[in-house]
Structures are given as C-alpha cells and as structure tokens.
Amino acid sequence: MKPAPFDYVAPGSLEETLAALAEHGDDAKILAGGQSLVPMMNFRLAQPAMLVDCNRLRDLEFIRVAPTGELRIGAMTRQRQLERDPLVARHAPLLHGTVPYVAHPQIRNRGTVGGSLAHADPASELPVVALTRDFKLRLQRSGSERWVAAKDFFVGLLETALEPEEMLTEIVIPPLPSRTGWAFTESARRHGDYAQVGVAALVTIDSHGDCQGAKLVYLSVGETPMAAPRAAELLTGSPLTEESFAAAAEMASTQEIDPSADIHATEDYKRHLARVFTVRVLREAAGRAAAAGE
Amino acid sequence: MSESHKQVVTVVTTVNGERFERDVEPRLLLSDFLRHELGLTGTHVGCEHGVCGACTVLFDGEPVRSCLTLAVQAQDHEIGTVEGLASGPEDLHPIQQAFWDAHGLQCGFCTGGILLTMLPFLEKNPNPTEQEIRHALSGNLCRCTGYQHIVDAVLRAAAMMRSGDGNG
Ligand SMILES: Cc1cc2nc3c(=O)[nH]c(=O)nc-3n(C[C@H](O)[C@H](O)[C@H](O)COP(=O)(O)OP(=O)(O)OC[C@H]3O[C@@H](n4cnc5c(N)ncnc54)[C@H](O)[C@@H]3O)c2cc1C
Ligand code: FES
Ligand code: FES
Fold it and tell me: Which of A130, A172, A230, B158 is the least buried, fewest Cβ under 10 Å from its Cβ?
C-alpha cells in the first residue's frame, strides 16, 4: 500500500499556494494534516497528479478572539491544539468538548481544522460543530476571496462548496449567545473510530427558563451533517421537560434523519441511538443553559 | 504526469538527534524512509492507514503516524524513533525497563509505537490513573497481551519516572 507517484510542492507563502492551485486546478490537491488524504493515497483511492503541501504556512496556524467576540481559527491549526487552547474552551466550548472524539491523539497532532471541514466526511465531528455553531468559512483563491456559511458549505457526500482553485484559510465562530448550553455525544465501536451516530445540541433559554431556541445536528445519518429544525421548533417557546425532550427526539429520529444500514448497524438501530442520544444531549444542554443563566 | 517522470527531492532531517540528508521520491512514506533509507527498523508497519499505531514516531516531540506522513515532510523537523530511547543495550529507558519488568510485551510488534505514545503522555501526566492510561492507549492495537500487562507497565513506568529512576 503505497501512494502512486505525484509532483510535490511545499510553498512558503499563501500567495504561492494559491498561485499553484490556480495553475494546476483539478490536478492539484492540498495536503494539510494528511490524515484522510494519505490513507486514501496509500490505498490508491486518490491519485492526485500534484500535492500542494500547506504545512509550511505557519501563518494559518492561529487561534484568536476578535474585538467583536468572534473566535478566529486558522485552517492549518492542528485539531490537537483546539483541545489544549483556553480561548477555545472559553469561547467555543462545544468545539472544545467535541474535538477529543475525533480519532486518536496521534491523528489529531497532524490533522487540521481546515482539513476536517474540507474533507466533509458525514461521520466526522467538526462539520457537525460547524453547522451547529454557524461557522463562517473563508475561501481564498488567487486575487479574491469569499465567505461561506457552514449551512451552504456542506453540499454532498465528501463534497463542499470549495472550488479546485480555492483554499479554506480561516474559520470564524460567533460568540455563544447568553443563557445557552451545549452538549455532544456519539457512539463508536471502539474509542477513536468514526461514530455510528452522534449528535450535538445547543439550547438557549429565556429569563423564565423556557426554551428560546434550540439546535440539533447529527453525524453519520446522511450524506452531510444533518440538522433537525422541526425537532428544534417543537422545543422552542415551551418549558424544557423530559416530555419535550422525548417529543423532539421522536421527531428527529423518525422524520429528520436518513441513516442507512452498514455492516455494524441496521437503520432501526441507528434511529434508536439517535433518539436516546437526543434526549441525553438536550438534557445536558438544558442543564448547562440553566447554569449559564444563574 | 508521465510514468517515466520521477521527481526527486532532497530531504534534510534530524532523527534521534542525528542529521540525515537523502534524495527521495515525494511519495515515500516517513515509515519507509526510516526503515529502508536509514535502517531504523524499530518503527513497525502494520496497517498503513493510521489505525494500528505500530508506526508511531515522535514528530517534534509529539506522537504521529509515520505511515500517514511523507518523508519530505520531515524536512527541518526532529523525528524520534524507538531506537533513540535507550543510550545502550544495558541502559534501558525507564519506560522500556518497566515494560520488561511487567511483561508489557509478547511479540513486540506494537511495542515501539506504544512506548512512543506513552512517553509524551507520561511527561504531561506524571501520575495517571489506570483509566487515563487506557484512554491514552486507545490508538494503539496489541494483538497479544490483552493490554492488562501494558497498563501495568505504564503504571510502573510512571512511578519509576516520578522517582527519577534510571535515566528518565
Ligand atoms: C485511523 C483514523 C481515524 C479517524 N477518525 C476520525 C474520527 O473519528 N472523526 C473525524 O472527524 N475524523 C477522523 N479521522 C480523520 C482526521 O480527522 C483527518 O485529520 C481529517 O479528516 C482531515 O484533516 P487533515 O488536515 O488531515 O486533511 P488532509 O488529509 O490533508 O486533507 C483532506 C482533504 O481535504 C483537502 N483539504 C485539506 N485542507 C484544505 C484546505 N485548507 N482547503 C481546501 N481543501 C483542503 C485535501 O486536499 C483533501 O482532499 C480519522 C483518521 C484516521 C487515519
Ligand atoms: S502502520 Fe501506521 S498506523 Fe498502522
Ligand atoms: S505484543 Fe504482540 S502485538 Fe502487542
């Protein structure tokens, strides 16, 4: 299992990187952490003619808070860095709490934030967090750039809004609204494996403790990370109770996700997991929202 | 790209403190570079897609999969392999001594990767619980031991390293 031959460049600046992508277009692939691309090349499922290695772009490894309270993260920031960074813990606790579910530390030491989002595996955790927390993504090409919202970024199985000449360079995470709680859980056959089903929740309460808004996003239940807006709608405007959690879980697991059977789990089993996990994350997120409101 | 075309890149890297310079194809994996170019066969190759952990090496002090890293990416970086742990055959690193004492290996295929995963873990967590050790081990497969003796060995290594035993 060895990669097929390819040409290799490792530009020292973003300008050179974008120029190389502009010149080679479809033939070129960005090499970020290599933790998804290199296995595919080892299996020869991917045979890019050229690799543009971005690991010398140290300017794209950063985590900082903007004066507006947004958290800005460079695309080449390692996943491992996210779990160690106090700014991420404070300003993006859902992201901070979810990163440890991604693979193993050895993989996260190399794997990048940008690579995980650009790879867009529906079983991966970071795209789910991106959708739950409305990440804004900066896509740059030689001479121009555009910003894309997470909800417009994930368009299909391993497919994003990125054009071949574009690079995802930065993500921006809006501040967490006040009186808001978060939670994430998943089930994998072994720790660190891609999950069978996972779900992230965000719950905001008003000053009386009623639900003012909620969000539920699932992994491994469709071709992209999947949101359950109707379940969230059921919760909004009412007190948060075990009954309302159960009703939302029923709606999401039967109406809003689209899991398919695989060798380890039937479709029914995945819907069952989704229902049980939905109640769990809602309960935990509601508890955190109440604690945040005190 | 034509079949006959073959790009060759010069890579300069430091492995176990020693500087090496080699001309390699960019597609050469770091695991194969260590084994075939430098003769450091203590880095084992199991699955070549990141799952088993046998190929784990230190990359600027952090454990990474050498089967998912290209040799050319080691340019200007410091690599540590299992060969770099002991200063001599009679002078094992405490973590190696602990694995010896506690029967932390049988065939030894997984051992190098486990040592290089556990060493940075113990440096950051000098007094781990058994549960934390099991968690930290989860990216390394062992088909022989059933893990119990590995966990015992890591607990023992932690105690030895805390007390400054050996050269650790
Ligand atoms: C054993 C194993 C288990 C894993 N388990 C999980 C898991 O449980 N959950 C999970 O989420 N992931 C898992 N992963 C994948 C891991 O998180 C990868 O790091 C991640 O999917 C890709 O990030 P990368 O930086 O390594 O990207 P690469 O592998 O370098 O690139 C992936 C793809 O994205 C493109 N790309 C990369 N960066 C950019 C960019 N900035 N702009 C545009 N395109 C870009 C590349 O061209 C390539 O097509 C696992 C990997 C392994 C080997
Ligand atoms: S050989 Fe690298 S992880 Fe298995
Ligand atoms: S000792 Fe044989 S694989 Fe671990």
Answer: A230
What pTM value is reported for the model? Answer: 0.96
Are both B3-84 and B94-163 of the same fold? no
Return the CATH number of A7-53, one of 3.40.190.10, 3.40.50.150, 3.30.43.10, 3.30.1340.30: 3.30.43.10
B106 lines ligand 3 (CB under 6 A): yes
Domain boundaries of chain A, sorted by first residue: 7-53, 58-173, 180-292
ipTM greater than cut 0.90: yes
Residue A81's closest chain B neighbor by CA? B62
Query: Does the beta carbon of A78 sit less than 6 angstroms from any atom of ligand 1?
Result: no
Instruction: Name the β-bridge partners of A214.
Output: A203
Each residue's pLDDT tens digit, B115-140: 999 999 999 999 999 999 999 999 99
What's the one-letter identity of residue B41?
T
Q: Which two tokens stand for residue B6?
A: 């073959």
CB contact under 8 A, B139 and A55: no
> What does B104-141 look like in DSSP terms, one character per residue?
--SS-TTHHHHHHHHHHHHHH-SS--HHHHHHHTTT--
